[in-house]
């Protein structure tokens, strides 16, 4: 009987697993149906349209109750024939960080601990773009400073993203309209994507995120600005909740000098297409072949 | 003896020990509780109780994980020289290696678990009920191979102990192929773990083809260092006949491994410093400090000098045969590789971060406590498994008579000392 030992080990393991299973089942039986449903939910991309609607309804109810106001959570999919692109005019940016704060408000980023999807780097003019010399914590009386220029960095929405490739559970992916998104309900918080991202675009909820109810943006998208739980990764989504409804991202709208341009790369007549045609653009860390859809250029 | 008898006998072995044994187990349990309480804090408040932040998003936990994958891999690889050089008790070497591998893998999985932001969602990783991003994600590969390796070693160890307890010879057609398979699997777990890092173009400190070979070399040092100390303890406290020559041979092999390890490090240092591109800054941060930030510099020089001294101690026959310098060498190698994989591998890659910011990381007390608890858990697993294995191997457990060749002569003398069954 050569396999007796395996049977024995199998048996004890099986008993052990059964015990764990019974304990877990007992624990979950004591939970409310909502908690059970949230725990055992499926991967977002495997949901049927009906299941998507049910999940949005559950989240609407959940957030409305938590923040004491009417909240809308949409799961509006990408439109056919749309590929979003972004261009930032470095010769116009004055480093005022209005984009940073508009983004925080629009996208319900945690105020405590602070999370900001856009990082504006102050660079020395005579050194050009050199990350080693960059200062993200510049704090002068007024901007722009005569000896410096400013380089805002957020998610570069790569065509070949490193972050989605390394995610062990497929919790982050590129949508058909080119936006790289995260399912906050599927992310396990391993932070492999943060190690992989060459742009520091991904941010982790190290602690419980806090948003004052009065400052909540109630127009939410499931893959975008809905409140995140603790222990998951988040990042810029080009304001998916806005752009899929024909609006500009909040940072484009707020920019006082018009340095930020946004549009459909597949539309030859869009502003973004014209910039790519008429200006000379570049991307950050082009040597890594991440092929960002976020371009920089000097318009003046 | 059925499965139930196996379990009850095992439990009896575990509960049978002297004062020193219970003090040891008590210390481990105390550390587990102390660290477990820290983990409760982390579970309640999140990873904010650590000093990891967006700039340094992996640190102490992942460094320990990487180190322990090396220990798990190298312990089993010792089977090869044991076979080639006729050390005698191959089965004992293999069994102890597998037991060490099990303990190390348990610690690896625990370190990954405590590093997860959402440990409640670990099941998302399980193929079938979860959604594994396979084959694209190297981390998914790592989860697979680590668990496979754990199951493999558990199967071998359980089978050997169970048949040993029954006084039967183990099933050669099961054990031999599995042990042989566990050797490439050991190389595999460490290679895949290295590829998690080496595959990231955004982190130049890791994105080098030399990384996997360096991992294997340092593992060939650290894994055997643990085994060497263990063999000496067993030599003195039990009847297991491990030859001195075998121990010296391991030390010699470790000297070669450490030489290759230092050589590969030198190759990297030359390439980075001589070409002096923007990639150099991470190595500079490690060895000399950058812009007034020096947190890792003492660690870096400690690990290099420990490695060099240990290499010299193990290179010369006189010092590797001297019990004091031999164990000093083991300690130095262990320290060297532990620092290299912990502080030296993970932190410099994140410092400065991808946008040039320097955030100096040092672990919090919570992280150290949780780390201590995990190491204690690993030591406890190891202690318990040895507690079962050693009486069977030495023949103190009477039924083992027919199984252990080479100890048959000593068995009669100890039959009277057998434990009650």
Observed structural traits:
heterodimer, A: 300 residues, alpha+beta, Alpha-Beta Plaits, 2 domains, 4-stranded mixed β-sheet, two-stranded parallel ribbon, 29% helix, globular, disordered N terminus, B: 421 residues, mainly alpha, 15 helices, 72% helix, disordered C terminus
Summarize the structure.
With 300 residues, chain A is α+β, with helices and mostly antiparallel strands. In chain A, 29% of the residues lie in helices and 15% in strands.
Account of the protein in words:
The complex is a heterodimer of chains A (300) and B (421). Chain A has 300 residues and is an alpha+beta fold. Chain A has 2 domains: 1-30, no CATH class; 84-297, Alpha-Beta Plaits, CATH 3.30.70. Chain A is 29% helix and 15% strand. Chain A has helices at residues 4-29, 33-39, 49-67, 98-106, 162-166, 192-196, 240-243, 250-254, 271-278, and strands at residues 72-74, 84-89, 119-124, 148-153, 172-174, 180-182, 203-204, 219-221, 233-234, 260-264, 281-282, 294-297. The model of chain A is unreliable at 1-11 (pLDDT under 50). The longest helix of chain B has 32 residues, at 244-275. Chain B has 421 residues and is an all-alpha fold. Helices cover 72% and strands 0% of the residues of chain B. In chain B, helix 9 (244-275) packs across helix 11 (297-315). Residues 399-421 of chain B have low confidence and may be disordered.
What is the third-level CATH name, the topology of the largest domain in chain A? Alpha-Beta Plaits
What is the 3D shape of chain B?
Answer: globular
Helix-strand topology string of chain B: HHHHHHHHHHHHHHH
> Spans of chain B with pLDDT under 50 lasting ≥5 residues?
399-421
Q: Oligomerization state of this entry?
A: heterodimer
Q: In total, how many beta strands of chain A? A: 12
Helix content of chain A: 25-40%
* Count of the domains of chain A: 2
Biggest sheet character of chain B: none
* N-to-C CA distance of chain A: 83 Å
Name the pair of protein chains with the most residues at their interface, and give those residue counts: A-B, 60 and 61 residues
Distance between the termini of chain B: 10 Å
Radius of gyration of chain A, in Å, reads 23 Å
For the record, the CATH architecture of the largest domain in chain A stands as: 2-Layer Sandwich
Strand tally of chain B, please? 0
Largest sheet properties of chain A = 4 strands, mixed
β-sheet strand percentage of chain B: under 5%
User: Which percent range fits the helix content of chain B?
Assistant: over 70%
Counting DSSP H or I runs of 4 or more residues, the number of helices of chain A is: 9
């Amino acid at each position: 009987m050569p396999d007796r030992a395996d049977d024995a080990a199998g048996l004890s393991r099986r008993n052990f697993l059964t015990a764990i299973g019974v304990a877990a089942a007992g624990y979950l039986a004591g939970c409310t149906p909502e908690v059970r449903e949230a725990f055992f939910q499926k991967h977002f991309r495997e949901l049927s349209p009906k299941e998507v609607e049910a999940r949005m309804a559950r989240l609407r109810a959940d957030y409305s109750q938590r923040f004491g106001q009417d909240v809308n959570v949409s799961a509006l999919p990408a439109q056919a024939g749309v590929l979003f692109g972004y261009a930032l005019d470095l010769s116009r940016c004055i480093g005022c960080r209005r984009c940073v704060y508009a983004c925080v408000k629009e996208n319900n980023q945690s105020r405590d601990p602070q999370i900001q999807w856009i990082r504006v780097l102050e660079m020395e003019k005579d050194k050009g773009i050199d990350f080693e010399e960059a200062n993200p914590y510049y704090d002068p009386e007024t901007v722009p400073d005569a000896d410096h220029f400013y380089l805002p960095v957020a998610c570069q929405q790569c065509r070949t993203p490193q972050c989605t490739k390394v995610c062990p559970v497929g919790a982050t992916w590129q949508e058909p309209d080119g936006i790289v998104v995260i399912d906050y309900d599927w992310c396990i918080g391993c932070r492999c994507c943060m190690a992989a991202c060459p742009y520091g675009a991904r941010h982790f909820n190290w602690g419980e995120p806090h948003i004052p109810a009065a400052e909540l943006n109630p127009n939410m998208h499931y893959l975008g600005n809905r409140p995140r739980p603790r222990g998951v990764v988040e990042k810029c989504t080009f304001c998916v909740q806005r752009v899929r409804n024909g609006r500009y991202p909040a940072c484009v709208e707020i920019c006082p000098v018009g340095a930020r341009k946004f549009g459909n790369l597949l539309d030859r007549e869009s502003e973004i297409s014209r910039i790519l045609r008429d200006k000379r653009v570049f991307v950050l860390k082009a040597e890594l072949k991440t092929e960002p859809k976020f371009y920089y250029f000097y318009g003046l | 003896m059925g499965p139930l008898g196996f379990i009850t006998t095992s439990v009896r072995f575990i509960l049978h020990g002297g004062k020193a044994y219970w003090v040891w187990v008590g210390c481990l349990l105390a550390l587990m509780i102390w660290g477990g309480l820290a983990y409760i804090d982390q579970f309640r408040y999140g990873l904010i109780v650590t000093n990891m932040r967006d700039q340094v998003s992996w640190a102490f936990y992942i460094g320990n994980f990487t180190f322990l994958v090396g220990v798990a891999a190298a312990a089993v690889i010792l089977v090869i020289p044991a076979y080639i050089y006729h050390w005698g008790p191959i089965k004992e070497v293999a069994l102890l290696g597998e037991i060490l591998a099990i303990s190390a893998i348990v610690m690896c999985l625990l370190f990954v678990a405590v590093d997860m932001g959402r440990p409640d969602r670990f099941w998302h990783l399980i193929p079938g009920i979860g959604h594994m991003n396979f084959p694209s994600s190297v981390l998914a590969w790592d989860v697979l191979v680590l668990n496979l390796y754990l199951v493999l070693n558990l199967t071998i160890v359980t089978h050997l102990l169970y048949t040993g307890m029954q006084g039967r010879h183990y099933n050669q057609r099961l054990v031999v192929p599995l042990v042989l398979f566990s050797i490439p699997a050991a190389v595999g777990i460490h290679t895949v773990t290295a590829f998690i890092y080496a595959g990231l173009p955004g982190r130049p400190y890791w994105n080098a083809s030399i990384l996997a070979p360096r991992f294997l070399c340092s593992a060939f040092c650290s894994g055997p260092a643990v085994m060497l100390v263990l063999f000496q303890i067993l030599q003195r406290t039990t009847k297991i006949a491990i030859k001195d020559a075998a121990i010296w041979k391991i030390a010699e092999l470790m000297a070669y491994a450490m030489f290759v390890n230092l050589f590969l490090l030198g190759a990297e240092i030359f390439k980075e410093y001589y070409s002096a591109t923007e990639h150099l800054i991470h190595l500079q941060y490690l060895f000399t400090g950058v812009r007034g930030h020096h947190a890792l510099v003492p660690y870096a020089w400690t690990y290099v000098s420990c490695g060099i001294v240990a290499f010299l101690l193990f290179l010369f026959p006189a010092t590797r045969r001297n019990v004091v310098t031999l164990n000093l060498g083991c300690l130095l190698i262990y320290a060297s590789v532990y620092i290299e994989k912990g502080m030296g591998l993970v932190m410099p890659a994140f410092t400065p971060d991808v946008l040039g910011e320097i955030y100096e990381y040092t672990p919090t007390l919570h992280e150290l406590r949780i780390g201590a608890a995990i190491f204690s858990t690993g030591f406890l697993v190891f202690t318990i498994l040895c507690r079962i294995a050693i009486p069977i191997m030495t023949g103190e457990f009477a039924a083992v008579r027919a199984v252990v060749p080479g100890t048959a002569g000593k068995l009669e003398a100890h039959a009277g000392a057998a434990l009650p069954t």
